[in-house]
Amino acid sequence: MAWTIAALLASYLLGSIPTAYLFGKILKGVDIRKVGSGNVGATNAMRILGKGPGISVLFLDILKGFIAVMFLGSYFINKPVLFSSESLLILMGISCICGHNWTIFLQFKGGKGIATSFGVLIALAAKIAGLNVALIYVILIWFIVFIISRMVSLASILAALFLPVFCILFKQSGPVIALSLLLSAFVVIRHKANILRIAKGQESRLYFRKKPNN
């Protein structure tokens, strides 16, 4: 029991590192929770801090999820834990994502978990047969929707909704399908405000060059 708790706690604390918040404070002395969308994530960091810092935040948030499963997971699966290796890695990934979404360091206000979830899925795909194919299809959906709409939120929501579909199609295990359903629910719940803005035609669009004139 002690090793299991330690594994989940370590993953949660790793995920809780508020990358976008730290970049905002260090680079511009701003609290990113109080500017832009108020989201402690890469998209808001890109809008407020610029493309370079935003991409750095994106990379580090992905890295949190990847490290939690690939390296912390590899350490703890060799300990006397309560779950199978696959189930423990999945639970550690979920803990890391929860840390990012509800970080203890910012009074449980964090990001929306897209980048960290992606890092978790990359690491799991390296260990679970067939998950890499499902993940490739999800990434393709994200890029297609984003290129068409220029809305990170819409691309993330649709990609998340298709994740369980592809996990089922590519015959993933019960725990992996359960993870995909949970991640999909996380994304939809964390994007409630975005969904309302999308419905009203008020959602912000992200351009890496100067926005074209309407």
Keywords summarizing the entry:
globular; 10 helices; 214 residues; single chain; mainly alpha
Beta-strand fraction estimate: under 5%
End-to-end CA span: 59 Å
- Count of domain modules: 1
Q: Report the order of strands and helices.
A: HHHHHHHHHH
Give a quick precis of the structure.
With 214 residues, this protein is mainly α. The chain is 71% helix and 0% strand. The chain is built from ten helices and no strands.
Sequence-ordered SSE layout with sheet pairings:
Elements: H1 2-16, H2 19-28, H3 42-49, H4 51-76, H5 85-101, H6 114-125, H7 131-149, H8 152-169, H9 174-190, H10 192-200
Explain the overall architecture:
The chain is mostly helical. The chain has one domain (about 1-200). About 70% of the residues lie in helices and about 0% in strands. It has 10 helices and no strands. It has helices at about 1-15, 20-30, 40-50, 50-75, 85-100, 115-125, 130-150, 150-170, 175-190, 190-200. Helix 5 runs parallel beside helix 9 (about 175-190). The N and C termini lie far apart (about 60 Å).
